[in-house]
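User: Hello! I'm new to structural biology and keep hearing that structure can be predicted from sequence alone. Could you demonstrate with Cytochrome P450 714A1? Please show me the input and the output so I can see what each looks like.

Assistant: Of course. The first part below is the input, the amino acid sequence of Cytochrome P450 714A1. The second part is the output, the predicted structure written as tokens.
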Amino acid sequence: MAVALLLMTVFLLGVSTLVMRALNQLWFNPQRIRSVLYKQGIRGPRPSYPFGNIPEMQKMQSAAKIPSDAQQYLHHNWVPSIFPYLHKWEKEYGRIYMYSTGSKQHLYVSDPNLLREIKLQNTLDLGKPTYLGKPLQPLLGDGIIRSNGQHWADQKKIIAPEFFLNKVKGMVGLMQTSTMEIIKKWESRILEISQDSGVLDMRIDEDLKTLSGDIISRACFGSSYSRGNLIFEKIALMQEALSKPSLLFGFLNFRFLPSENDKKIWSLRKEVDAMLLQLVRHRQAEIGRQSGGGVPNDQKDLLQTLLENSAAANNGMHTHKSERFVLDNCRSIYFAGSETTSLAASWTLMLLSLHPEWQERVRAEILEVCGDHAELQHCLQDMDSLRKFKMLTMVIQETLRLYAPTVLTSRQAFKNMKLGDLNVPQGINMWIATASLHRNPKNWGQDANEFKPERFANGITEACKDPIAYVPFGFGNRLCIGQTFAMTELKIVLSLILSKFSFSLSPNYHHSPVQKMVLVPEHGIRLLVRLVQAS
């Protein structure tokens, strides 16, 4: 009897503990967060238990679909159609407000003053929202994009130097090599398919994604880049399978059994891991055979650097932990370095097709700085030449203002903290609306939704009233470590392509930017492509 009573007591205590934990997570903690913000005058849409504001968000999203004949709707203020709820609530509650998705509490931020306070924080107590971690784990693992705290700081210390200017200089040649392959492909298609008109109606974003993937693969894997390309094709499929709006805000999902999509994701994860691990172990064997100190630091690809640093961190032992570090960061770097750069190049060419006067200005500048196409490749080897591309830089900066691949940037407070006059409660997820910051008429002028590269004629600091609100590469201590790499790649890719081809908008282009982890053209970017000599 005593044993039974003891077991019953233990059972009841266990149940009570679980119930209290559930209540704390689902009720008390959300109420605490909202109370702290409410007392400071922050308002927002009223949530309903247990879904929060999800039903209202879904209703507005359904009503915000762009008509199928969207050619006539080609404009650059696409924010209301992608995030209608954020747009509507900002009008109602101001540039700082709170809302809920289930038990998760969010703070919307498009106020430059609060952004400045967030940017000044160097603490590790601000990081990526943890609730995004599990669904993104197959794609990013525990790499630098997804990790937080000291683990993130340690990874940044190893990876960031690989994208400093001195290393990027050594990657210019591989950027040119990959770009020339795409140029030859396009030139051949124009000559073969459109001999009469000299015009090819083609979708450019897919080829540019392949190009960007090839470049980051060469940078990561050096001579093994062809294997890297096969791996990255699988990663791209995984990204597509994960690209759902529910992922961004943590919409509730009551499925107890994995869906076919879930099974596909984990199957792709296993394939990617197996292929990466084979590549890693092959490179480990090569490193072991090297003599005389191995490869000079400035000639090492990213894979070798990751392997050597992870091995050093584990006292020279190639453990499962060090291999996992390499695998996770190879996936993270591909996602960050391939997808975002190819999208920026695609959106740039779309905008230039709408503004032929700027296309001609950029082409004239390339000719002035480097001469004709035959001299261009040699010219681009000199980083000083890239700095002289003022018109091209202005066009890229304006494209990143209107079509930055990252539409929203997030931060979670892991502790209670003070940001200016605001007391930020532990557990809040802050969402910085990049797209809204980049379109605020008070900061950018009444032409904020127009493509006007001339606003950047004197640099970012003079482009608007408050430059803190220009954040295409993020901000603060989590500023994109690949910014120099990305800008260099964009200048090389675009200068080579624009020196060879001219672009205009295809009548088959359907303008429909959508959020799929990053800002993508839902129906691709179709342009009319001509050889410059034939224009």
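User: So the tokens describe the shape?

Assistant: Right, they're a compact way of writing down the 3D structure. Reading them back into a model, for example: The radius of gyration is 25 Å.
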